[in-house]
Design a protein that fits this description.
This protein is of the alpha/beta class and about 375 residues long. It has helices spanning about 5-15, 65-70, 75-80, 90-100, 110-120, 165-175, 200-205, 220-225, 250-255, 260-275, 280-295, 300-310, 320-330, 345-355, and strands spanning about 35, 50-55, 85-90, 105-110, 125-135, 135-140, 155-160, 190-195, 210-215, 230, 245-250, 310. Strand 7 (about 155-160), helix 6 and strand 8 (about 190-195) form a beta-alpha-beta unit.
Length: about 375
């Protein structure tokens, strides 16, 4: 790897590590790490191999499997006498740190922090054990300033954080237009302005940005402020599917408590089934949980379009994770990662078979 790219990677990694309060991947709202303790009283039933499993997720619609599974007790139901304890995060790095330190055991998280978390521990920290969501990312612009995609050149466009999933996707899209941008500074033919999702709507209203490449519900918040969806990222992917949220587990916990991991995955699969069969009830449940966590529910003109753009799936869409890693390497934000072994989908496929559903693939990146 060229020396300048190696230095760029180290600087980017340091920058990301220094910004734990910013969002990485599908970024959300709420406290950086809010532990709501026991969440709900453990359900009646046999206790599994540990008293408690600590689960992390973002208070974000692209993490709705966890939101709904928590709110409706669907995850707890599968755990029986083993108690689910939940913690919320706004930043991928802080969730990875919590997983590595043993503060949480399992987490819902985006692809970029999963890749970074796996790479920085030389493949010893985590495994991706399931999928959760696809889509829910849009380029929203000020229609008075931007009329077409070619008008993005010369404009100020926000992404959630340096090196996060949406940042990488936008940098890759810029390169495909033939435009040049320094990945680290964000300066060039387009000004890439790294902005916390929580303040992006205010930045848009003030005119300090001309648009944003962001996940839901931030994208729909901008539309509610008069923005226009210029591009839905799903349209750039085969079959309009790409991973936005995965389920990860610490390798230590997976080895010591496979029964608990299987129970959480069963709860996730059943939650996604319920979400897809009852979209309105699931949307309301997710919003109720968001209100509990943040103190404010999303209005209908935000949550309704946001919800429609997200697909809830058990498939981790492994081939798209590999593509996203390639985009980060091309942008100069990541060394070529060794992703062999990042997936262990055997527990999920066992659950899917038992539920009469199709199994999923690891794109050759599974444990051997």
């Amino acid at each position: 790897m060229p020396a300048n790219r190696s230095r760029a990677f180290r600087r980017t990694a340091a920058a990301i590590a220094a910004l734990p309060l910013l969002t990485l991947a599908a970024c959300g709202y709420g406290s950086e790490s809010k532990d709501d303790g026991t969440s709900k009283v453990a359900a009646e039933g046999k206790k599994l191999s540990t008293d408690t499993v600590r689960i992390g997720y973002f208070p974000n619609l692209t993490h709705a499997t966890a939101l709904v599974g928590d709110q409706e007790g669907l995850l707890q139901k599968e755990l029986g006498g083993t108690k689910a304890s939940y913690a919320q995060f706004n930043a991928g790095p802080s969730e990875i740190e919590a997983l590595n330190s043993g503060s949480i055991d399992i987490g819902w998280i985006g692809p970029s922090p999963a890749i970074n978390g796996y790479s920085t521990t030389d493949g010893k920290g985590l495994r991706i054990i399931g999928g959760s969501a696809s889509g829910g990312v849009k380029l929203v612009v000020n229609p008075d300033k931007v009329k077409s995609l070619k008008d993005i050149k010369g404009k100020k466009i926000a992404t959630p954080q340096l090196g996060n999933t949406q940042d990488v996707a936008f940098l890759n899209w810029i390169a495909e237009q033939g435009w040049k941008v320094d990945a680290e500074s964000g300066k060039g033919d387009v000004s890439v302005v790294r902005t916390d999702n929580k303040i992006t709507p205010d930045a848009y209203k003030s005119g300090s940005i001309d648009g944003a490449w962001v996940p839901e519900p931030t994208a729909s918040k901008l539309v509610a402020e008069g923005g226009k969806v210029l591009l839905d990222e799903a349209g750039l992917w085969p079959d309009k599917k790409f991973v936005i949220t995965n389920i990860i587990v610490s390798q230590k916990f997976l080895k010591e408590h496979p029964d608990v991991v299987e129970a959480v995955l069963r709860g996730s699969v059943k939650t996604n089934t319920w979400i897809n069969a009852n979209p309105d009830k699931a949307k309301a449940a997710a919003n109720t949980k968001l209100e509990e966590l943040s103190g404010k529910a999303l209005p209908a003109n935000v949550i309704d379009p946001a919800w429609k753009s997200i697909q809830f799936t058990d498939d981790p869409l492994a081939s798209t994770l590999n593509t996203e890693a390639e985009h980060a390497v091309k942008a100069g934000l990541l060394e070529q990662p060794k992703l062999d072994g990042i997936y262990d989908l055997a527990p999920l496929n066992k659950v899917l078979k038992a539920e009469g559903k199709s199994t999923v693939e690891d794109a050759g990146l599974g444990v051997k």
